Amino acid sequence: MRGVIGVLTGKGPACDELQNWLDRQSDARVHRIPGNQIAWQRNEVVRGLEADEDFVLFVDNDCVPPAEALQHLFSVSMVSGIAAGACLERVLPFDICAVKSLEPYSRYTPADLRTMTGATPVIAAGTGCMLIRRDVFHDLRPPWFRCGQIHPELLAEDLDFCLRAAEVGHPTYLVPSVKVGHRTDVILWPGDDGARWAQWPEQRGRALYRTPLPMTFDERETHVG
To answer: What mean pLDDT is predicted for residues 28-52?
Structure first.
């Protein structure tokens, strides 16, 4: 098993936790692609595959895979060629980055993961932590990743890729045991009730309401900074 881990760096350097994970990977070289042209960057990683490399593992620089993510995803990819970890969206309502239904459009929720007995075929998944075997790219015509195909105002390069791959016999599998961290930003407020309150991002800006975090100032030591 040998491959490449493609890290898109348009949002800045990898977070410390991801860099620590990357440093421990011996079965893959790391290929960082700077820029903000997501489809082109992903295609560059694929075009850069070396002759003896069997897969591409895309990991976004704001994601943190668990320790054995690469091995688990590679094992599942033997079934269809595409395996994705379970990653929460960075915005409300924090659903899983995997499509459950197109009509009406819906995503899986964390509660859905509890009912999955193992790797599960899904309509599509986000590429934040997705392993794709080399033969999938052979069976698809380049460019493998495209923007604006689903809707002219949306990137949706991950959804477009998964739909096209399924058409040539490579459905995407969601692996619920590979739980991936996803960094987000939040505005913290000291609540009048003595609890920490958080104002989360949502699709169209900052949420207008605030929610208490599951701890109070008295429950553990607070480090500011």
So the answer is: 94
Structure tokens at 31: 């290929």
**Segment 168-177, tens digit of pLDDT:** 999 999 999 9
For the segment 104-132, the average pLDDT, to the nearest whole number, is 95
Entry pTM: 0.87
**The domain 3-182: what is its CATH number?**
3.90.550.40
H-type alpha helices, the chain: 16-23, 38-47, 69-80, 110-113, 134-139, 157-167
Residue spans in the chain of domains classed CATH 3.90.550.40 = 3-182
Which one-letter amino acid corresponds to residue 162?
Answer: C
Q: Is the dihedral of CA 220, 179, 159, 51 positive or negative?
A: positive
DSSP symbol at 81: S
Distances (CA, A) of 47 to 65, 72, 138, 188, 192: 24, 24, 11, 43, 55
Interhelix angle for 157-167 vs 38-47, to 10°?
A: 50
